[in-house]
Amino acid sequence: MSFGFEVIHKDIAGRVGKLKVGEKVIRTPALLPVINPHLQLVTPREMADLGVEALITNAYIFYRSAQYREQALAEGLHKLLDFDGVIMTDSGSFQLSVYGDVEVTNKDTLSFQKAIGSEIIVPLDIPTSPAADYETAKHELAVTLERLDEAREFMGEDCQLAAPVQGGIYTDLREEAGAAVSERGFTFCPIGAVVPLMESYRYQDLVRVVMAAKKGLSPAACIHLFGAGHPAMFALAVAMGCDLFDSAAYALYAKEGRYMTVHGSFKIGELAELPCACSVCRSHTADELNKAPDRERLLALHNLYVTLAEISRIRQAIQDGTLWELVDERCRGHPRLLSGYRELLTYADELEQSDRVSKRRFFYRGSESCLRTEVGRYHQMVSRFTLGAEVLVSFDGTEIEGYDDCLLFRPPFGPLPQGLSETFPVGQHEVPDWDDEMVLRGCEGIAALQESHPDSAITVLCTREWEPLVRAALPDVGVILNDI
What we know:
By secondary structure, the protein is of the alpha/beta class. The protein has helices at 44-49, 59-64, 69-75, 77-81, 93-99, 106-115, 134-155, 171-183, 195-199, 203-216, 234-240, 249-255, 279-282, 286-291, 295-320, 323-331, 335-345, 348-352, 373-381, 436-452, 467-473; strands spanning 3-11, 14-21, 24-28, 30-35, 54-58, 86-90, 120-121, 188-191, 222-225, 244-247, 258-261, 264-267, 362-363, 390-394, 405-410, 414-416, 429-430, 457-462, 478-481. It has a seven-stranded parallel β-sheet with strand order 7-6-5-4-10-9-8. It has a five-stranded mixed β-sheet with strand order 16-15-14-18-19. The mean pLDDT is 94. Residues 14-335 form the tRNA-guanine(15) transglycosylase-like domain.
């Protein structure tokens, strides 16, 4: 398949990269705005002027359209839409999931997408409902894989085919699907049928589904998260390793009078101020925007500005090594997003394998920060410390004679040799006053040190304030008090 995906920067599982589609290049992470030819509040030309490098439209809509079908076949999508960037087409599988059977076969949609000049073609997969039972999900996944095989044989090896990863809410099927499309050589892999999860705020399930699919997929695959349209959840999705998103939300929300922000959406009639610096918001008051005759178009423009700005913010966070902080900030805007964030942290060991080693800083933002990849990696690293027979871990830096080594204690990481005090993550970390969660996590670092150095006797020097917690967390470690 003629895709090329080059990763330039990484943070957690997020990637800043370049996706080559034929002779064109898309910077990732990227947003592909959804274009409906019958509802264009913002034109593709205007999107290109805003920096949009790729968009997605539904081939089934063109296939059924008396107004646009013949024009699309005669002129091609690029001329019809007046857009020079990459155009991806969906097959009609969404309509299949909503309305039941559609009068188009897999080969029909493949041929039509190619005929209208689509540059990323999606076979007619089956988007399995989250409500489907296991046997149904397994059967529908098998049909989707059969259609992928049919598409590759029908279209040829050089066609730029997307390979949707299905499997419903069943993590074993999602992992199986990811492995299956990678084994078939597909490198552009949308994770499908997740819109119902996002619409019902089931972000824990979303994380489980995506992480399962990622486990099966090749690390070199470019991952598209179908239907992920609200900027509030982009950082979470990128942290999982998603590279592309498609969104009709900018227009759909506008039609409902909804004003997007990275912290959620608001009814425009309920706002007294517009907390945005885009051209729409700087040229209108909230009341003027609400009463404007072209309100829907103006809201769509604003929503698109906000969405694109968040993509840029995420790219910068990846390059800075501050994606964890951005995920934490965004996910505290909604309790269900926060539950998704906490679910993601349960995969820290897997994420650590792709996370970068050095970053700008470690900013402690609460108990969730104790579970970040950097902390787990540090606990693995303590096994490499060279220690003598008697080792002191000092909470306040006080040294006592008679010990071969005196280590500092820096929660949530744990024991710290003086020589590493200026290195990441402990040398570039910012924490408030210590709390129980961070000290307990730091004690896990001491436990890891004890386990990896069985010939060293470890003693902890702490104040009376922390003595009960330390003794409970480290029952086999000596504890002495420093009440000075």
